[in-house]
């Protein structure tokens, strides 16, 4: 059974730079990509960043690419999201997912419906 387990969330003050982790249990992914999304109350799940299985290629949305960085450690079967200078508007549940398809063309790994596995999410609340 495949599990994605996120950690690193919590209540933080604006301006801090926490790192989220997503550990994959039960399988080693060697195709497609891992991605991070977030979902605020009343809003759709929003793509943040993705990284292909080798770590060579990364993808991110313009709104956070200057503050958030995705990385992975395949030896630990873990993907990270480094978040810098958090703002209250970053408050959301953060999810990691695994998309097993190889993407060609534009918009790679940015569609939540394409993902095959999801973690349970970790809440990040940013106080001002």
How many E strands? Answer: 11
Instruction: Give, in order, the helices and strands.
Output: EEEEEEEEEEE
3D shape: globular
Main β sheet profile: 7 strands, mixed
- Radius of gyration of CA atoms, rounded to a whole number: 14 Å
Low-confidence runs of at least 5 consecutive residues: none
Topology:
Elements: E1 3-7, E2 10-13, E3 19-25, E4 33-39, E5 46-52, E6 58-60, E7 68-73, E8 78-83, E9 92-99, E10 117-118, E11 122-127
Overview of this structure, please?
This protein has 128 residues and is mostly beta strands. 0% of the residues lie in helices and 48% in strands. The chain has no helices and eleven strands. It has strands spanning 3-7, 10-13, 19-25, 33-39, 46-52, 58-60, 68-73, 78-83, 92-99, 117-118, 122-127. Strands 2, 4, 5, 6, 9, 10 and 11 form a seven-stranded mixed β-sheet that branches. A hairpin with a 4-residue loop joins strand 7 (68-73) and strand 8. It is globular and about 40 Å long. The chain starts with a strand and ends with a strand. The model has no long low-confidence stretch (mean pLDDT 95).
